[in-house]
Amino acid sequence: MSARLEAEHLYKVFGRRPDEAVDRLRGGADREELRADGTTAAVIDASFTVEPGEIFVVMGLSGSGKSTLLRMLNGLLEPTAGTVGFDGQDLTALSDRELREVRAKKISMVFQHFALFPHRSVLENAAYGLAVQGVPRAERERRATEALALCGLAGWEKSWPDELSGGMQQRVGLARALATDADLLLMDESFSALDPLIRRDMQDQLLELQRSLKKTIVFITHDLNEAMRLGDRIAVMRDGRIVQTGSAEDILLRPANDYVASFIQDVDRSRVLTAGAVMDREVRGDEADCACETATPDTPFHDLCALSARLPHPVAVLDAERELVGVVPRQRLVGFLGEETGTPQPCDSPRDKGGEKVTARA
Fold first, then answer.
1. 129 contact partners, CB below 8 Å, separation of at least 6
2. CB-based contact 19:29 (threshold 8 Å)
3. Which residue intervals define the domain ABC transporter in the entry (predicted)?
4. Is residue 246 part of a domain?
5. Do the Cβ atoms of 1 and 31 come closer than 8 Å?
6. Is the dihedral of CA 316, 318, 324, 328 positive or negative?
7. Is residue 257 situated within a structural domain?
8. Which of 95, 230, 325, 341 lies at a C-alpha separation of 20 to 30 Å from 18?
9. Single residue among 231, 263, 295 that ends a domain in this structure
């Protein structure tokens, strides 16, 4: 299966002589050298792919370049260098009219601050993207009504935006994106303006929708726990560069550098890690024979701890064919819990053997 979205060596430079600045960056210059000359390198040599049906999270601190990167993915910002491929089409080669057509029908965006029209009803807001496409009124209202129901807003169609809570307004923004049936959703800090409990609820909503709709999503956040919870894969950005890309387990167990290691040190690993990440693959016969209650490679860490507490022996981990693929001794669980303030020691990952991804969202 080919990638739905592919970014290749993207650069975005603001200021004087941007092409010259890209040449300097390729030659080894850093951001500070360019800034001294009045030039800002927002994104530097960013490359990644996003598979169909994947939630790809780009995370980093403020000023890391993540929002600028997102806006290059749908042509709102033109890259200084590099290309963006979408379903095999080079978006950077399209005319303005062709780009508008792609944004209207194939790529939707969900913003941080809702971006609702106060003088339009909830239904009219949800149907706005379809109105831009020229969809007949009856059809767009039907599709918008269905999208609102998916987002838990059935019965609110005739309400006005100022009658809704912040979380409900964000659901309208999500419904507007879903109503267009776009192939790609771009979500720019979409839950960052919400209170913590409402934010968690919106994360649950997105994961529930994703299980049935299987959209391709690029999600921008500065919150590491949100990234770990939502992302099938995560790209960590710093100073305009992507410094590591991988699953939540990859990043927790194998941080690429000291910056990533310091970034993840406060993450609750028990909500991210799975049996497949922590199991011992060197299985002895007596361990295999004593297995009664078992786990699978995607059993969450906290469930694994509860299971281990009930058993006098290591927990056996079985694959989909009920074949033994590893065991988890109790001391191994204790070891990972004891490393909450440090970097865990790497263990074999299912990816190391060329297997399927077995991470589970907390």
1. 104, 108, 176, 177, 179, 180
2. no
3. 5-264
4. yes
5. no
6. negative
7. yes
8. 95
9. 263
11: left (phi over 0), alpha (psi -120 to 50) or beta: beta
Residue 353 one-letter amino acid: K
189 DSSP 8-state letter: S
Mean pLDDT, to the nearest integer, of 25-54? 93
Same domain for 243 and 193 = yes
Residue 9 lies in a domain: no
Among 68, 54, 86, 10, residue whose Cα is nearest residue 247: 54
The verdict on 308 and 159 lying in the same domain is no
Distance CA 151, CA 341 (A): 38
Residue 32 forms part of a structural domain = no
Same domain membership, residue 317 and residue 177 = no
Residue 109, phi then psi, degrees to nearest 5: -125, 135
Q: Domain containing 337 — which CATH number?
A: 3.90.1280.20
User: How far, in whole angstroms, is CA 171 from its chain's centroid?
Assistant: 18
Is residue 177 within 8 A of residue 107, CB to CB? The reply is: no
Reported as a single tens digit per residue, the pLDDT across 281-304 is 876 554 444 456 888 888 888 888
Give the confidence band of 358 by pLDDT, cuts at 50, 70, 90: very low
- Are residues 203 and 130 part of one domain? yes
The residue written with tokens 């303005």 in the block is 96
Q: Which of 311, 225, 316, 223 is nearest to 270 (CA)?
A: 225
Q: Does residue 80 share a domain with residue 210? A: yes
- Residue 176: give the domain boundaries: 50-263
Q: Please state the separation of Cα 101 from the chain's center in Å.
A: 25
DSSP state for residue 342 in the 8-state scheme: S
* Total number of domains in the chain: 2
pLDDT tens track for 20-35: 999 999 999 988 889 8
Around Cβ 74, how many Cβ atoms within 10 Å? 21
In the structure encoding, which two tokens stand for residue 117, read together? 């029209």
Residue 220 sits in a domain whose CATH number is 3.40.50.300
